[in-house]
Amino acid sequence: xxxxxxxxxxxxxxxxxxxxxxxxxxxxxxxxxxxxxxxxxxxxxxxxxxxxxxxxxxxxxxxxxxxxxxxxxxxxxxxxxxxxxxxxxxxxxxxxxxxxxxxxxxxxxxxxxxxxxxxxxxxxxxxxxxxxxxxxxxxxxxxxxxxxxxxxxxxxxxxxxxxxxxxxxxxxxxxxxxxxxxxxxxxxxxxxxxxxxxxxxxxxxxxxxxxxxxxxxxxxxxxxxxxxxxxxxxxxxxxxxxxxxxxxxxxxxxxxxxxxxxxxxxxxxxxxxxxxxxxxxxxxxxxxxxxxxxxxxxxxxxxxxxxxxxxxxxxxxxxxxxxxxxxxxxxxxxxxxxxxxxxxxxxxxxxxxxxxxxxxxxxxxxxxxxxxxxxxxxxxxxxxxxxxxxx
Length: 391
Ligand code: FEO
Known about the structure:
Radius of gyration: 24 Å
Bound molecules: MU-OXO-diiron
Shape: elongated
Helix content: 25-40%
């Protein structure tokens, strides 16, 4: 338990045990499930935490509320990493009203069988707690359809749900008074790319909707509470949701016997010679896909390399492209590098994906027949020259 303001307290928990977030995404530095309590004339909790963290969480509530009952539970988001303890809280505080919009309340019934003691709010509804008054703003698809954010008018605090969140447990502090934004930047981009990345347009809509609010504290559901880095975190989310990227290239390859891998190493060296400073190379058979996605969100250039396999893309390459396409990543400069032994298919498949996503396909793709012996040094040189120039 930590104070955010005199009457608003952090009651979230760190999870350093779960290996895969959503059973999909690696957690090397853990993750925090953030929850907050406002102790005013009324006592209100904003979001709960993942159910496995219940013991520590309930202890935090007891301590922060000082034995007072909880009057309201605000549910900004129903994904179970935040709604996991709704039923438990209702048992402990039977008179507690659960606050959500129509979609939230339907999900609360669907997930937890709770259909009474619910308070439905709409966009702009207000809830007075005493000194603090909460206003609710719907923010659908950031990250689920029921998502809303809650604004505390007195503290100028935005309880933002998943928005502005990041991976990484909180190392000895709660807010950026103690924790550095820079230490969480990579985990913020990786979180965005994996979890929220598909919803760029709704994030943009939410940013516009919230832009008139004077915000002095951002309290999201994952990662540090932001007080001093508000402009920075809004800028990160703004850029990522517009798919705006910086100069640099991701070279992501699949390689069965090393020929395509060697070609990619050669391409990367040439790109650097041509002045591309940020280059990230990934072998997709072993890479952490969340890191590849993170860097595809960060950098404008994308080289995908694949052998033709069963008249298709090499499976890990196909899997990456599916994930990138699902996230509707736009505005990338694309080129293919790869190989085949007797019949080419990978180049065609990759170009189809690139065109479908509206990427600019550069006229420099190269494909080896059987080995590097089929390509001239000049072809590699031209590839790198064309790609670097376009970046
Ligand atoms: Fe952290 Fe969409 O839940």
